[in-house]
Amino acid sequence: MNHLPWQEKPEGYTRPVWRYQDNPIIGRHQTPTSNSIFNSAVVPFEDGFAGVFRCDSMAISMDIYAGFSKDGIHWDINSEPIQFIGADGEILQREYRYDPRVVRIEDHYYVTWCNGYHGPTIGIAYTDDFKTFVQLENAFLPYNRNGVLFPRKIQGKYAMLSRPSGTGHNAYGDIFYSQSPDLEYWGHHRFVMGVIPTDRSAWQATKIGPGPCPIETDEGWLLIYHGVLQTCNGFVYRMGCALLDLEEPWKVKYRSRFYILAPEEMYELTGDVPNVVFPCAALTDAATGRITIYYGCADTVTGMAFTTVEELLSWVKKYPV
User: Considering 53, 96, 267, 316, which has the largest number of Cβ atoms within 10 A of its Cβ?
Assistant: First the structure.
């Protein structure tokens, strides 16, 4: 495993997730025409790291770009968006692409993202070098967002979490599990979890969605997700965590009542969409249990935070819904 970016938990800090002291790690103008760079995903690659980044342009068009880093903190992001090959030409036509996730499954790195095809759906592609990307068929009918693949097959099938939604910024959304024999035909859809009433856990009362690819532990799949509350000032996005059954991941063993990270710093509170922390990637060191989270801040810049498997398991068991 490549050396993960890491900072120790500050002395006296009692929350389960702590921020990188030099956040944000990626500013909004890091490519020549970008308006904002956020909600992006990274993985270990060769002797460093590679990633797929959401870069909204100065025309406010949404697309995804490849990038590389030696240390996971300082990034060189391509100035042109990914040009996909393969699939049917109709599917390759771009309406918009945003909020990617990246995971290695067997011999390929797979990218999923919210893909515009007569409304939002889940696009899928694979790459071996982060230079050539082969796009597959869209996973689902519109409307869907936040497609997140598991890092291995489950019961012999590819597995994905997603959040069916509407055409716009709708005030609803639950998480579902789907499986596929070939990454093209998806079925056996199962409900995983939905919103929580405001009297029990209001930060996730409006909608929820899967974040980074689930992390496999001896006790189950550790899922970091986002929860949303609609307030008088608009939507507020926070992070939570859940533990899913290892062999039947649609079954929730634990789910956090208290959030694990919320917008508090100025770069999370102000931006194009204020009051947002939105996780899209989590790197894990299996030997130490360390987790490095990459998250979008106020739909404008990219931040990094840290935790451990032990911290999250302890939190979700101590403060379950």
Answer: 53
Residue 1 has pLDDT above 70, yes or no: no
What distances in angstroms separate CA 186 from CA 99, 103, 115, 131, 181, one per listed residue?
21, 18, 16, 27, 8
Name the amino acid, one letter, at 306: F
For the entire predicted model, the pTM comes to: 0.97
- 222 Cβ neighbours under 8 A, 6+ residues apart: 214, 215, 216, 241, 242, 243, 309, 312, 313
**pLDDT one-digit tens code per residue, 161-206:** 999 987 776 767 899 999 999 999 999 999 999 999 999 999 999 9
